Each structure stands twice: as structure tokens, then as C-alpha cells.
Amino acid sequence: MVIRVGHIPPHKRNIMKTTTMAKGAFLALCLIGMMVLPAAAAPAGQAAAGQGAAIDQGLKDDLWANHHQYRLQEFDLHVQRANSVIGILDKYAVDTTQMQATLTTISDKRSALDTALTNKDQAALKTINSDLASLWKQFIQETKDAIRAHYTAARTSAKTSGAGTAGATAPLTGAALTV
Are 113 and 128 in contact (CB under 8 A)? Predict the structure, then answer.
């Protein structure tokens, strides 16, 4: 049997035509659905052509109240988690002074966030969210720096305490073991 390059056997031509037709029919149904759905979703009494679909004010208010509630809960959860991290680091004698100051600044933003959410003030929310993003990045960097400084000091201390004896290694402390 000789098969030519680019030649499609007759039995596969019908399969390809059927597949192509099925894809075309599916695409047509999708396009029709995209045209029909906006009209079906419009409130009763509104025509789809030429008029913007009005969203029920009650729905908007309920969604905003939901956003308000959970945005504040999210804020509180992040602050609680940061306090927990500070508590853990304090337990291991890591200096958390800068982190605590940054977290206080973050916590002080809660009332402004609540006010902006209550007033639905998009401009204020944008500013507050931008400020909070910068402060959280600062908090994370301060956390990394504090941990790094703590363990750098622990390693230095371990090296200097063992420097007096030639060839001996410094005893490992609890802080050095957790590196």
C-alpha cells in the first residue's frame, strides 16, 4: 500500500468532516448563548438593546456589606497572625521592636479602613490599601531582618566562645541548633 504525504484516506475524511461540523455547531451554540444570556439576565421590563442593565440597589448594598464585614475580619486576622509571630520571636529572644512599631502603625489604620468601607469611598480605600500593602511588606522585611540578625549574632557568639581553644568547635546552643 502506498501512502502519499498529505493524503488523507477516505474513511478519515468523513471523521474529520464530522468532527469539524461538531466543533462548528458547538461554537455556534456558544455564540448564540453569549447573545441570549445578557437579555435573559436583564430585569423584567428592560430591553437588552440600547439600555444598560441596572443592578438592584439592594443587591449592591448586600454585597458591599458582605465585603465590608469580611475585609475587616481579614484585616483583624492578619494583625492577629502578626502578633502571634511577634510572640513566637519574643520567646526566642529575637528583637521585635521595629516589627511591633510597624504593626502598631498598621493597627492604627483599621479605623480609617472601616470609615472608608462605611462611606464606600473608593479613593480612600485605594490609598489605605496601598499604605497597608507597603506597611505589610515593611513588616515582613523587618521580620526577616530580625531573625537574620538574631542568628548572625548567635553564630558569631558561638565562634568567639570557641576561638580560645585550637581545633575545638564551639558548643552548640539552643539558638544555634534551630538554624
Answer: yes
Q: For residue 106, which of 84, 129, 135, 133 has the smallest C-alpha distance?
A: 135
C-alpha span between 23 and 16 (Å, rounded): 10
Q: Are 158 and 173 in contact (CB under 8 A)?
A: yes
- Of 102, 97, 110, the C-alpha closest to 134 is 102
Cα–Cα distance for residue pair 10/16, rounded to 1 Å: 10
The domains of the chain are located at 58-161
**pLDDT, tens digit (0-9, with 9 covering 90-100), for 105-137:** 999 999 999 999 999 999 999 999 999 999 999
Flag whether the pTM goes above 0.70.
no
Contact 158/167 with Cβ under 8 angstroms?
Answer: no
Radius of gyration in angstroms for the set of CA atoms belonging to the chain, rounded to a whole number:
32
The secondary element (H helix, E strand) that includes residue 161 is: helix 122-161
Chain centroid to Cα 147, Å, comes to 24
